[in-house]
Amino acid sequence: MDFLYFLIIAACILIPSLKVSTAVDTIDLSQSISDGMTLVSQGGKFVLGFFSPENSSKRYLGIWYENIPQTIVWVANGAINDSSGILTVNNTGNLVLRQHDRVVWYTTSGKQAQNPVAQLLDSGNLVVREERETNSESYLWQSFDYPSDTILPGMKLGWNLRTGREWRMTSWKSPSDPSPGDFYWGMLLYNYPEFYLMKGTEKFVRVGPWNGLHFSGIPDQMPNPIYTYNYISSKDEIYYTYSLKNDTVITRMVMNQTSSTYNRYVWVEDQQFWKVYKTGPKDNCDTYGICGPYGTCKITGSQLCECLEKFSPKSSQAWNSADWNQGCVRNKPLNCTDKLKDKFMKVEGVKVPDTTHTWVDETLGLEECRIKCLNNCSCMAYTNSDIRGAGSGCVMWFGDLIDIRTFDGIGQDLYVRMDASELGEQEGHKKEVIIIVSATIATIFGMLLIGCYRIYTTRLNKTDSTDIIECNENRGGSEDDLDLPLVDLSIIITATDNLSIKNKIGKGGFGPVYKGRLVSGQEIAVKKLSRTSRQGMREFKNEVKLIVKLQHRNLVKLIGCCVQEQDRMLVYEYMTNGSLDQLIFDNTKSKLLDWPTRFNIICGVARGLLYLHQDSRLRIIHRDLKASNVLLDNLLNPKISDFGIARIFGGDQTEGNTERVVGTYGYMAPEYAADGLFSVKSDVFSFGILLLEIISGKRNRGFYTANHCPNLVTHAWSLWKEGRAIEMVDSNIEGSYILSEVFRCIHVGLLCVQQHAEDRPAMPSVVLMLGSESELAEPKEPGFYVKNNQGKTTPFTGQTDTISTNEITITLLEAR
Ligand SMILES: *[C@@H]1O[C@H](CO)[C@@H](O)[C@H](O)[C@H]1NC(C)=O
Ligand SMILES: *[C@@H]1O[C@H](CO)[C@@H](O)[C@H](O)[C@H]1NC(C)=O
Ligand SMILES: *[C@@H]1O[C@H](CO)[C@@H](O)[C@H](O)[C@H]1NC(C)=O
Ligand SMILES: *[C@@H]1O[C@H](CO)[C@@H](O)[C@H](O)[C@H]1NC(C)=O
Ligand SMILES: *[C@@H]1O[C@H](CO)[C@@H](O)[C@H](O)[C@H]1NC(C)=O
Ligand SMILES: *[C@@H]1O[C@H](CO)[C@@H](O)[C@H](O)[C@H]1NC(C)=O
Ligand SMILES: *[C@@H]1O[C@H](CO)[C@@H](O)[C@H](O)[C@H]1NC(C)=O
């Protein structure tokens, strides 16, 4: 026994490092870590040791997850070319990394140490502290103060104002070189400080200032089931941080120079992979300053950049060729001889401009802020510095306003200085801005139009579907389902009276639809998918998660899904005015839809489709656009429904060739109907049909005339060639239309239904054409599949072209 004891002691003396070879989390002055040995945090979460990045023979000191391979969360900035590296803590309390006698890396601590130890904590923080000291405030040094490319829960991004040190997250140079790259997330200490992704000295993406709730440029940053976030601003420190709601979740945020992105990952234990939970930049509108001064970037716009209202492109030539850098100038320059006469225009739903030249006073309210701004001719805009509650604090901008972007339904308000003559009597407050297009145009429900551009005064009702989201959070769920908006079956059963037949409001090819009402009073539509889907549950959930994120005012909002054994249901917001086909093809009801309303519907559908086609994360081809898939809200605004359903249902994912043909007779592009070839251009075709239907009030397929045209398209085409296109217009809108507008719409419609997909315009051009007066190309002959109906080229051979009052969506497998 004694002998054994002696052996152990001897071993410890002779080979001091043996002590740390088993799970030890601390070293003291007498110990060291050499290559091949590790420190393991007490709970076994993190490991400190030496590693080599992929394709590199160099050795680095780093920290990684004990149970997750190859995920380095921190690295010391120093490379060693062999395995002779050794880490010690010396008696002034500094970590020293040596290769033989050469010091490769070391830390500096401002404090004097007596008996320092280095410890790896379960948070992933490597700290140097006095042996007896446990107060985190008194650490001599900690790796959390020196982030590399990863921010773990509890780390900070911002500034320590006492020491003048910045906490910034910096990418590796490359996957095989962990030394700091030039892509980083940092904070610029302007009066109104803001966060940027920088590429070297260039601003790459402006995340924006903290506005009390979130970064101004990330308004969709929302409370979530995984982590809480916080922004602290005091005289000593100013930083952003986040912490876990449940310590069992593993998440990290990483800067990546290779892809120029930052990603938040969540570890999915079951499947052993890092799932991307959030990513940025989101889209082109995040590109710094893309629209120049006084331009605003709008991802759902007809083009990315628009000028602020009452501003025009500085160079319209550059602007029209998508070169927006020069930005916009005022239609009426400011004169400021009598500055108190100036007014402010409220711009809603934006990311506030670059804050380089700002001034902040947190004690002032909005009205005081206005007066303060008014009194200084170089103050160009103001708003609340904190938007929580009713808003508080004052921030003012001096000089040109740059890098604004507009969000749909979210974002904050900005008040921009204008010459008084540019605004009407009222100031500051939002009013309905009315643009008289023509004396004959009536106003419908207070909505007015200029081209396709509407001025929106309503904001997204943020309380929508709260009960569902809470319900979902309470479920806990597996990590995989964390951002899947699951709706409990019990909620659906209560809301729809157990999917009772009296609540059934429709039936499409994918299954029946029921109306329901949540306890909160919100009305929903529940679509029960028929069981023939070939898609696995995981794919189904993944698709729902993607589709749920698509939000646009012209898309019906998918609230969530419900999965019950074999049954799958989708829950949507409910649209009070039903579907377009019920109104437009009914001779009496269609009187409700005068020309301005119809034009609004056309433009709205175009914008919704544009969003589906060019949203940066996900390109959705609708594949079944038709009048019955356009729903109308209480103000008769159009919203496209059933988008993404082909994906959800398990059709092919992107453009290409599909075995499963999904679509509706009469709306299908010839190449899609015949060969299953679908693309954004087949959607454009369907849009063109829809457009002609809206103008004529007639279905493309139930259309017969004396001249034996098989359908509306051929009829429109023959009238067009004879210069009599206007004859196809629905007599119900005779009193309300503007000839040039209707004519233009017919023209655009015919361009959309051209036989060859490559001739058809893409949706960005369609939206542009509808809203402008530019010259349009002459349409070529339209295509429609009936014409090619010889032989066996189409799966529809033999179908007769009869009037169908109840359109049926086709989902069939092509016989092979
Ligand atoms: C490592 O090298 C292989 C072979 O040259 C290459 O395919 C791979 O992309 C490299 N990995 C990294 C991270 O550079
Ligand atoms: C490693 O670096 C040291 C000093 O920088 C140098 O003397 C040595 O030759 C290098 N060894 C190898 C294998 O490159
Ligand atoms: C500890 O290491 C640091 C960094 O190499 C050095 O500046 C300091 O003098 C060392 N202290 C002692 C007592 O050797
Ligand atoms: C954290 O999550 C685990 C596993 O999902 C669960 O068992 C535990 O109860 C949760 N803890 C808290 C405090 O919610
Ligand atoms: C960075 O992005 C590249 C390319 O997308 C990827 O291969 C790499 O793993 C990423 N690096 C990190 C640290 O996530
Ligand atoms: C500014 O307005 C005043 C008064 O309306 C006018 O006399 C003056 O010419 C204007 N100055 C400029 C530069 O437009
Ligand atoms: C207006 O504000 C700017 C920027 O803060 C300041 O330099 C200037 O002196 C102010 N002018 C007046 C008249 O107060």
TrEMBL record:
The keyword Lipid metabolism does not apply. Pfam families: B_lectin, DUF3403, PAN_2, PK_Tyr_Ser-Thr, S_locus_glycop. It is found in: Membrane. Keywords: ATP-binding, Disulfide bond, Glycoprotein, Kinase, Membrane, Nucleotide-binding, Serine/threonine-protein kinase, Signal, Transferase, Transmembrane, Transmembrane helix. Residues 499-776 form the Protein kinase domain. It catalyses: L-threonyl-[protein] + ATP = O-phospho-L-threonyl-[protein] + ADP + H(+); L-seryl-[protein] + ATP = O-phospho-L-seryl-[protein] + ADP + H(+). It is an enzyme of class 2 (transferase). Residues 1-23 form the signal peptide. Belongs to the protein kinase superfamily. Ser/Thr protein kinase family. This is Receptor-like serine/threonine-protein kinase. It is a single-pass type I membrane protein. Residues 336-419 form the Apple domain. The chain crosses the membrane at residues 433-456. InterPro entries: Bulb-type_lectin_dom, Bulb-type_lectin_dom_sf, Kinase-like_dom_sf, Pan_app, Prot_kinase_dom, S-locus_recpt_kinase_C, S_locus_glycoprot_dom, Ser-Thr/Tyr_kinase_cat_dom. Residues 24-141 form the Bulb-type lectin domain. One of its GO terms (cellular component) is membrane. Its EC number is 2.7.11.1. Gene3D superfamilies: Bulb-type lectin domain, Phosphorylase Kinase, domain 1, Transferase(Phosphotransferase) domain 1. One of its GO terms (molecular function) is protein serine/threonine kinase activity.
